[in-house]
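Hey,

Quick one before I head out. I ran the complex with farnesyl diphosphate overnight. Inputs first:
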Amino acid sequence: MSEANRIPRHVAMIMDGNGRWAEQRGMPRHEGHAAGIEPIRASLRAAVRHGVEYLTLYAFSTENWGRPAEEVDALMELFCQCVIHETPELQRQGIRIRMIGDRTRFSDKVRAYLAQAEELTAAGDRLTLVLAFDYSSRDEIVRAVRKLTARVAAGDLAPEAIDEAAFSAALDTAEFPDPDLVIRTSGEQRLSNFLLWQASYAELCFPQVLWPDFTEEEFDRAIDEYARRERRFGRIE
Ligand code: FPP
């Protein structure tokens, strides 16, 4: 593996363990989510330092709508506050925000904040921060199938023209490379409906720490672990 390949171009993160972190301290769960903001800043600093080009964060899954209303409301409020407060700093650092997921179920307020954050940071060319909001991989795949079949029905696309590249291009992630490294905190070893198509050849890393305790050093350790792995993509080399 060449030196350049030792740095993943795209890192995707499942930020797990906020609830447990709060419960261990006798705090309400939303305090755990609030404590999850600093590790995002730390990951961004580390990603920029390593020259990672894309950082995707699983911020709200389609299944998260099933949590108690007060937790969902607290998460939405946190996203809005975070987007308002952090956008100027992201702009300054050349970080571009992009969203993946189904935005149709958010309130007008949340949708407007998310769109504004994308617009204000559009010129950022140092790193792309991809926020997966109301995202699940199966939902994304179903939406992609609907897009493609609608084009087939309209006579716009021949079924034989649907290959892996055409399918990838119909996903929310069309403009991004596949993740090279997926990190899930809290010791759970699952993908939980996150980037299932895109992570086909990703290296997986499962640090034991809960997300609020994730630091720049933890990010560095995951990059080191990635660098030691031998990636073969099904080939013999
Ligand atoms: C999983 O922990 C975490 C979430 C469902 C939310 C993650 C969101 C943040 C850290 C805030 C992000 C904000 C922005 C703007 C990106 P969990 O609640 O499932 O933890 P548990 O497994 O211990 O219960």
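The helical segments are 18-24, 29-34, 37-50, 69-93, 108-120, 137-153, 164-169, 216-228.

Talk tomorrow,
K.
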